[in-house]
């Protein structure tokens, strides 16, 4: 599992600064969808800078395990075609 987490981190390292859509399961059948861009990656977590005009929080962070367990889904947007360029699953 550690190797898989490293692969997720390496993939996200190459996506820094890219716009994305975030879909996060927050429990009890509640799903949060937000937009922003991948701001930073750290050894255990990554940080997303949210679009400020839409949300009260400016930044959120998640662990790579959240992506592995599909608690968090990231869809990177292709700025030229407005389509999906990369997805976490």
TrEMBL record:
Report the coiled-coil segments.
none
Q: Which InterPro entries does the UniProt entry name for this protein?
A: Protein_Veg (IPR009366)
Q: What is this protein called?
A: Veg family protein
